[in-house]
């Protein structure tokens, strides 16, 4: 494995850690911050962080951005506006375990999409890694008892999470397919996507305010927004985009299986939730599957 690929995998693991923290924040502040407000201020704060870094570069590459045109709007709509709206809204009406279960379709959807849209069919060893990691994730969700999967119930929010997962897979695939149109520094591209996505979120946020939804400007609420803006947005999205460039969408999507592992570890460290046998077994299966996918070469 090349040094660039190794660094890309390390970055994806870090992104999964930050997104696992984002899931904990979203669950903890569901009653304190309305979903669209959290999405809007997450990206507004991220834009304030990015602009001093990428403002001059955005102006310098304005011709490239103009030529990218509608493609940038599509990617921003998928990754910034619709995905976050769907995710935070789904969290209001479904259990966290169901969100994890539905998210298992992301690597599979990306594997198939990479073959159909990009002609990048993963090697057989990568498919084996996908299956192994999927078994590990389901073992975590079932808490070590496969019979528990049959007793799961699904709420209205599960459909929103399905749409959100497919939304993210499509973003990853299109970003890879249109990479020739985005000859930009990575942070410049991210800044452009955040700016356009925030413009699309603004009408939804105005509608939420008109409905009377507000949140208190307390230190915990502001800290939650700050975490989602810096770590779950600026840093994690940048690391994901680098993974797409170095590894392709299929293998990049495999890193999604690390999120429940990190969620369990964070729950143990921050919430005092003990790590059980099924956490260790499921985590080992997921890591083994990722190692197989990482070492697989394109066929």
Description:
The protein is mostly helical. The chain has one domain (3-295). The chain contains 14 helices and no strands. Helix 1 crosses helix 13, helix 2 (35-60) packs antiparallel against helix 4 and helix 4 (70-90) crosses helix 10. The radius of gyration is 19 Å and the shape is globular. The model has no long low-confidence stretch (mean pLDDT 82).
Tally of helical runs: 14
Q: The biggest beta sheet, please?
A: none
Computed CA radius of gyration, to the nearest angstrom: 19 Å
Output the helix-strand order.
Answer: HHHHHHHHHHHHHH
Report mean pLDDT, rounded to a whole number. 82
- What is the percent of helical residues? over 70%
Beta-strand percent range: under 5%
Low-confidence stretches: none
Helix/strand-derived category reads mainly alpha
Termini separation: 15 Å
Morphology call: globular
Structural domain tally:
1
Number of E-type strands: 0
Can you summarize this structure?
The protein is mainly α. It is built from 14 helices and no strands. α4 runs antiparallel to α9 (156-177).
């Amino acid at each position: 494995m090349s040094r660039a690929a190794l660094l890309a995998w390390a970055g994806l693991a870090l992104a999964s850690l930050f997104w696992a923290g984002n899931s904990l924040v979203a669950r903890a502040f569901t009653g304190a911050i309305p979903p669209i407000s959290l999405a809007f201020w997450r990206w507004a704060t991220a834009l304030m962080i990015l602009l001093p870094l990428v403002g001059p570069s955005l102006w310098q590459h304005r011709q490239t951005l103009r030529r990218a045109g509608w493609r940038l709007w599509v990617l921003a709509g998928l990754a910034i506006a619709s995905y976050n709206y769907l995710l935070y809204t789904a969290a209001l009406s479904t259990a966290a375990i169901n969100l994890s279960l539905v998210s298992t379709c992301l690597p599979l959807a990306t594997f198939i999409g990479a073959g159909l849209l990009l002609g990048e069919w993963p090697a057989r060893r990568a498919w084996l890694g996908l299956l192994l990691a999927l078994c590990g994730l389901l073992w975590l969700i079932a808490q070590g008892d496969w019979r528990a999967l049959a007793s799961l119930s699904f709420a209205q929010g599960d459909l929103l999470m399905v749409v959100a997962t497919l939304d993210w897979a499509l973003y990853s695939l299109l970003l890879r397919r249109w990479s020739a149109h985005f000859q930009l520094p990575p942070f410049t591209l991210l800044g452009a996507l955040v700016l356009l996505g925030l413009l699309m979120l603004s009408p939804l946020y105005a509608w939420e305010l008109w409905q009377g939804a507000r949140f208190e400007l307390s230190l915990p609420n502001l800290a939650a927004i700050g975490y989602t803006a810096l770590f779950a947005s600026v840093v994690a999205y940048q690391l994901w985009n680098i993974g797409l460039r170095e590894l392709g969408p299929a293998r990049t999507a495999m890193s999604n299986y690390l999120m429940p592992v990190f969620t369990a570890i964070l729950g143990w460290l921050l919430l005092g939730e003990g790590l059980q046998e099924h956490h260790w077994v499921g985590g080992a299966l997921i890591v083994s599957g990722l190692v197989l996918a990482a070492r697989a070469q394109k066929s």
